Structure to design on (162 residues):
């Protein structure tokens, strides 16, 4: 088991710019140039781990679209989105979807496409989906949860400074 330690500077940067950024100012938007300063898959994993979904999905979409996104990060975001709720809609879009639901549905679609193309960072991060899993109880779901989402992944364990 290998460990990747995020520095306190890395943690502070991520938390300052991407954790509850809209809470002080309702119209506050995330800054993509600041996001592009993240240079390691572990930083994206940490960002996804602490992210408050009340800030919207834009930053999470940046994470999924990034070449630094690991499979572990994508799976974490997938399960935290509460995907069972969205299985009532088609992944490719549904005219009955509310705006906020459409953004999450688009994010889920991106994650599934990323899995289909196996377009993840070469750096592997450990992830056990068990604590994140939700019951899949949707009646007549329009799509299935890919098996890859249930896999326990081996790789770097992410830790903060000691």
């Amino acid at each position: 088991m290998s460990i990747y330690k995020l520095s306190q500077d890395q943690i502070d940067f991520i938390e300052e710019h991407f954790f509850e950024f809209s809470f002080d100012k309702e119209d506050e938007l995330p800054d993509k140039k600041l996001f592009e300063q993240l240079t390691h898959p572990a930083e994206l994993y940490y960002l996804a781990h602490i992210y408050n979904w009340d800030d919207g999905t834009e930053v999470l979409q940046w994470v999924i679209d990034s070449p630094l996104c690991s499979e572990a990060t994508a799976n974490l975001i997938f399960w935290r989105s509460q995907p069972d709720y969205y299985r009532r809609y088609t992944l490719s879009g549904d005219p009955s979807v509310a705006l906020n639901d459409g953004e999450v549905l688009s994010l889920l679609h991106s994650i599934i496409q990323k899995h289909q193309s196996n377009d993840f960072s070469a750096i592997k991060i450990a992830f056990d989906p068990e604590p994140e899993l939700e019951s899949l109880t949707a009646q007549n779901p329009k799509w299935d949860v890919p098996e890859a989402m249930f896999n326990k992944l081996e790789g770097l364990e992410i830790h903060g400074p000691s």
Remarks:
- Residues 74 and 111 are 6 Å apart (CA to CA).
- Strands lie at 3-5, 157-159.
- The helical segments are 8-18, 32-35, 41-50, 58-65, 71-80, 83-86, 99-117.
